[in-house]
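To assess whether ligand presence alters the predicted conformation, the chain was also submitted together with 2'-deoxyguanosine-5'-monophosphate. Input:
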Amino acid sequence: MTLFEKIIQRQIPANIVWEDEDTLAFRDISPQAPTHILVVPRKPLPKLADATEADTELLGRLLLTANKVAAQEGLSDYRVVVNNGEGAGQSVFHLHLHVLGGRDLRWPPG
Ligand code: DGP
């Protein structure tokens, strides 16, 4: 079981900021911006590349949850990032969206 499944199942603590039937959002333990929240599906999908047509609605819900948590944080400008695979920086293999904001965000990212 991944770390994020343990958070979803309340086996380990997290600062949860949003919860609904399909998604959960909690603060990143190692924030890279004043606001850094992770949005995850309850369904364990290891990474974005594993999503199929059957996940179309779930992927939309994840983005809508990202919007909701950004609004809760009072952010109009924010960045949503998905690291897909180790070479792209993914370290936890349960799909998650990073929602980052509260400071200037440069482009291109590192
Ligand atoms: P990624 O590198 O894209 O797989 O992002 C994983 C993120 O998960 C990383 O930014 C740090 C965060 N993280 C790792 N362990 C924990 C934890 O136990 N609790 C919380 N809240 N976040 C964690």
